[in-house]
Design brief:
The chain is an alpha/beta fold. It has two domains: 2-127, Four Helix Bundle (Hemerythrin (Met), subunit A) (Up-down Bundle); 141-359, Rossmann fold (3-Layer(aba) Sandwich), CATH 3.40.50. The protein has 13 helices and 18 strands. It has helices spanning 40-48, 55-72, 77-84, 92-105, 113-150, 173-181, 198-210, 222-227, 253-262, 283-286, 295-298, 348-354, 356-359, and strands at residues 2-3, 6-7, 11-13, 20-23, 34-37, 153-157, 186-191, 214-217, 233-236, 240-242, 247-250, 267-270, 276-277, 299-303, 309-313, 326-329, 336-339, 342-344. Strands 8-7-6-9-12-17-18 form a seven-stranded mixed beta sheet, with helices on both faces. A four-stranded mixed beta sheet has the order 13-10-11-16, covered by helices on one side. A hairpin with a 4-residue loop joins strand 10 (240-242) and strand 11 (247-250). The longest helix is centred in the middle third of the chain and has 38 residues, at 113-150. It is globular and about 65 Å long.
Amino acid sequence: MKINGTYYRSLWLDDDGWSLRILDQTLLPWRVEVLRLSSAEQVAHAITSMQVRGAPLIGAVAAYGVAIAMRSAPQDLDRIVAWLGETRPTAINLRWALARLHARLAPLPVAEREAAAYAEAAAIADDDAETCRLIGQHGLPLLQEIAARKGRVNVLTHCNAGWLATVDYGTALSPIYQAFDAGIDVHVWVDETRPRNQGAALTAFELGAHGVPHTVIADNAGGHYMQHGEVDICIVGTDRVTRRGDVANKIGTYLKALAAADNEVPFWVALPHSTLDMQVDDGVKEIPIEERSAAEVTHLTGPDDAGKLTRIQVTAPGSRAANPAFDVTPARLVTGLITERGRCEASPAGLAALYPDKAA
């Protein structure tokens, strides 16, 4: 996708051919700054600090983290994979990518691991970009059908599931970009997504850069717009989908799904194959939910009137804060899943029909 007319993927190799370049997403949308990651430690920090975030992108960056580590410590493959796997607990893409690297590298002599790791990491990144392009193709007919009936399409999304959360295109935003590029009159309600405001900062930044009409709303306003017929469809991303179709996504997604069900608004979830976790059945009981720092709730960061980034406290002094980063939406509230292989019901049968290889 493009920023100020320049095409970017969300990660790429530096000119040296081995270190990794990323956009520092903690500074967007106020400043576009490119970081160079030259060690596994820097990769781990980028993931935990959310300089990179979004389940598919985390997996791709972690894969390159393994490759960078193989330059100096190919004998430490097991330790590096296990250590990077602990950086974020909820998104399954991280462990999927690391398991793929480990399976590819473990049988090899240590002298061959570096080259193989870079090749495998590049394959993961390319696969994610193509996967997200196909998700957009399979989601596009949903928006075309609404446009044929109503003219304008109003989409509500939560958090950031665009190209900044993936290698390119995005998951939930991919159908929106493809609809806009096809000339469909589409408008996006962008949840702010407290406490880190990924919607207000990142999704709005992406949509604005692409020219897609959008409006940022408070997290709790979505139900109001649904009640008044201002939302035609909800499309969100996800960090993990269980074999029965339960969906883990950014905190607040569950409440949007409840409001959508009460107002008969279709609630679709866009995901790549790497987000499926067929080892888990009951998402509410079995998916680990990351608890992040209370400071993300108690404080906000943004530019003041002079443009200087400033951190302010927004809660009463001395008050405790809890910060679960994700919640789980049960499959019964999900209209369907949009994948690179097509659309399906959020059910064991639906997923098995599209992914018989994974169901087995």
